[in-house]
């Protein structure tokens, strides 16, 4: 009888079996079965609830999946571009067709000979567009700069050579920070972006360090479906990426993506951290970084000693901790909110580039942030370091 009772309880999963077998079950474990049944039901409910909460808080595709899709897209982009590179220019036609997506002039490795070239076809301000076809991309190259004339001269020759071959409409903006304040790479890029938009309707912006020379001309200086990290393999690091999330050197953003992430953070004064910060901004907005194939994304770095004006930023790691917390406050948005953060001193059209000289006002930059250090320091020694730093900042 007891066996029959057990069977009934499992089949029905309800409290009825207890009523049904009240007369037959003899005060043994079986009398608890309805309680067990109810408990299991409650457990199932809790499980379902927690699953739905988990799914709700992270309903984005997993990183692995996104990376897989992006890798596929990159491969397709590079494979198809070559396939599509059949010349589309019809002889004798007045209509100018779109330039090839992967122009024939691209040779891969850049020969040092090209450095001897002069560029009479570049218009003042460093502007050029092909005349034999309609360019597919309108690109602003923005270079943060201070006191590296010998690098600038070499850089310009390399970059113009490549951009011609890639049949892009482009303009080069060198954004020079006037003396008097610690170098601020991120903010110079933001200023370069805002100033470039005054000179043309660029759909793509490439942010470029002046000491990096592209080695391959098929590393396309145009924008992809997501932000692109172009300087992946640098000779200085033996053509190996030093850490996986590196996003410094040369990066390309569509205009809309750059606005979407609120640009670079302005609060990094001195060397380091601003590129790691923008990578966090990109991730935080659900964008995935795309990279050209390893054989293409190769750069040489020009040698330089440590600069007096660009010492490592001692608080970069602390600032990185609040990267996401202040993403909406610190960036393009704060520059619109407080126009006193910088001043454009001069805009000059040079033979091969547009030179924008700016003055950065550190106090105004830091003023727009909620507080300097909202993160509670965990260790007393950090705390004293903080206090000293804040005291120094306020003077
Ligand atoms: C990291 C820096 C980045 C920098 C990268 C490579 O350590 O800003 O090295 O620098 N991050 C921090 O300091 C937090 S490189 O050797 O190429 O000048 O871009």
Automatic annotation (TrEMBL):
SUPFAM superfamilies the UniProt entry points to: Nucleotide-diphospho-sugar transferases
Q: Which InterPro entries is this protein grouped with?
A: Galactosyl_T, Galactosyl_T_C, Galactosyl_T_N, Nucleotide-diphossugar_trans
Name the source's superkingdom: Eukaryota
Q: Where is the signal peptide?
A: none
Q: Does the keyword Transmembrane apply?
A: yes
Q: Where in the cell is it found?
A: Membrane
Q: Name one Pfam family in it.
A: Glyco_transf_7N
UniProt keyword terms in alphabetical order: Glycoprotein, Glycosyltransferase, Membrane, Signal-anchor, Transferase, Transmembrane, Transmembrane helix
The membrane topology noted for this protein in its Swiss-Prot or TrEMBL record is:
Single-pass type II membrane protein
- Per the UniProt record, which EC number(s) apply here? 2.4.1.-
The biological pathway it contributes to is: Protein modification; protein glycosylation
Any single biological process term in GO: carbohydrate metabolic process
| Galactosyltransferase C-terminal domain sequence ranges | 228-304
According to the record, the segments passing through the membrane are 32-55
One GO MF annotation is: galactosyltransferase activity
Report the function annotation for this chain: Catalyses the transfer of galactose onto proteins or lipids.
Family, according to the entry, reads as follows:
Belongs to the glycosyltransferase 7 family.
The name on file for this protein is Beta-1,4-galactosyltransferase
